[in-house]
Amino acid sequence: MPKLALANYNKMSSYISAAYRRTVLKRSASICEYCLIHEEDAFFSFEIDHIISEKHNGITHPDNLAHTCFYCNRYKGSDIGSILIPDSEFIRFYNPRTDIWSQHFRLEGALIIPQTKIGEVTVKIFQFNHVDRLIERKLLIELGRYPGIISNA
């Protein structure tokens, strides 16, 4: 295979090496890097997400990978942002590699409240405040296990 074709193949490969997976898991402390739920508290296994999806030329490298819960990864899909109404403005999603969570979101009880347009579009598309996720988050807060907290009790 010619070098250019091989380079493009490697760039677009969805295979994530064990070393990259360990790096992402360690960096995240087993917490969803979007909604902050701990993996031990999730029903479904966590996944590795391409922050900028491969179809948008995102590369498979730790700088473009995030540890995510099933729901955040499914709702995000391969999208990189969405349109906010009424301005019809395209806004990118929160990026756990370059953004600070508390600058875009805050907790109000079990609600995740957006603080910026990036926060607003992320909360909307990732469905952070879907009733099922709110019930789960409320319970985890009461148990002292959210955001991403494992108590020693």
List the helices and strands and how they pair.
Blueprint: H1 3-12, H2 18-28, E1 47-50, E2 65-68, H3 70-76, E3 81-84, E4 89-92, H4 101-104, E5 105-108, E6 111-114, H5 117-126, H6 131-142
Short description:
The chain is an alpha+beta fold and 153 residues long. It is 35% helix and 16% strand. The chain starts with a helix and ends in an 11-residue tail after the last helix.
How would you describe the overall organization of this protein?
It is a single chain. The protein has a two-stranded antiparallel ribbon with strand order 1-2. It has a two-stranded antiparallel ribbon with strand order 3-4. The protein has one domain (3-142). It has helices at residues 3-12, 18-28, 70-76, 101-104, 117-126, 131-142; strands spanning 47-50, 65-68, 81-84, 89-92, 105-108, 111-114. With 153 residues, the chain is of the alpha+beta class.
User: Strand count, sense and closure of the main sheet?
Assistant: 2 strands, antiparallel
Our estimate of the beta-strand percent is: 15-25%
Number of strands: 6
Low-confidence stretches: 1-12
| Radius of gyration (Å) | 17 Å
What is the H/E string?
Answer: HHEEHEEHEEHH
- Regarding quaternary structure, how should these chains be classified? single chain
- Overall mean pLDDT score? 89
The helix-and-strand class reads alpha+beta
Q: What is the spatial order of strands in the main beta sheet?
A: 1-2
First-residue to last-residue Cα separation: 57 Å
Number of domains: 1
Shape: globular
How many H/I helices?
6
What's the helical proportion of residues? 25-40%
